[in-house]
Amino acid sequence: MIELKTPITDEDINKLKVGDTVEISGYILCGRDAVLPKVLKMIENGTAGELGIDLNGQVIFHTAVSPAGVGPTSSNKLEIESSIEPLSAAGIKLHLGKGELHPETISALDKHNSVYAVIPPVTALLGSKTSEEKVVAFPELGMEALHMIMVDKYPAIIASAHGKSIYSQEDQG
């Protein structure tokens, strides 16, 4: 496991290779298809300094931040993938998301000494631990139908039990 701390340096990037596992610590940016074009426009207009942050050595996670938490969105969406080269040129060193990038984007990352890392969605992990599935009822609902699946070693965290919750320090009942 390679530990990275923001801001990330060129030397940090130079030590990384495909297949390395990393743990990132420090402040990172989060943005996806709605906001990245706005950031690019600020870079183009020379007004990115108004963001109040230094893009040099920064990490951007292709995600939204919601009360449900964060999870990677597809980095190969047009608005996201097309932002990778200009953001790398502006100093972003690490792009986090999910999905395969086009060869041109991979070349652009190399040109600017930046890298892309995937954060696998939980569904990828759980999918590998599911061996059977069938619709039990309401097939007209498609993926929202009642399904039965065969699982093997699904990881889980008990979030509430005996009147307590991991989300609160106080007893719930």
Domain module tally: 2
CATH topology of the largest domain: fumarase
Mean pLDDT comes to: 85
* Spatial strand order of the main sheet: 3-4-5-6
* CATH architecture term of the largest domain: Alpha-Beta Barrel
Structure summary, number of beta strands: 10
Broad CATH class of the largest domain: Alpha Beta
Order of helices and strands: EHEEHEHEHEHEEEE
Can you describe this structure?
- The protein is built from five helices and ten strands.
- With 173 residues, the chain is of the alpha/beta class.
- It folds into two domains: 119 residues, Alpha-Beta Barrel (fumarase), CATH 3.20.130; 42 residues, no CATH class.
- The strands form four sheets. It has a four-stranded parallel beta sheet, covered by helices on one side. A two-stranded parallel ribbon has the order 1-2.
- Helix 1 links the parallel strand 1 and strand 2.
- Helix 2 packs parallel to helix 3.
- It starts with a strand and ends in an 8-residue tail after the last strand.
- The model has no long low-confidence stretch (mean pLDDT 85).
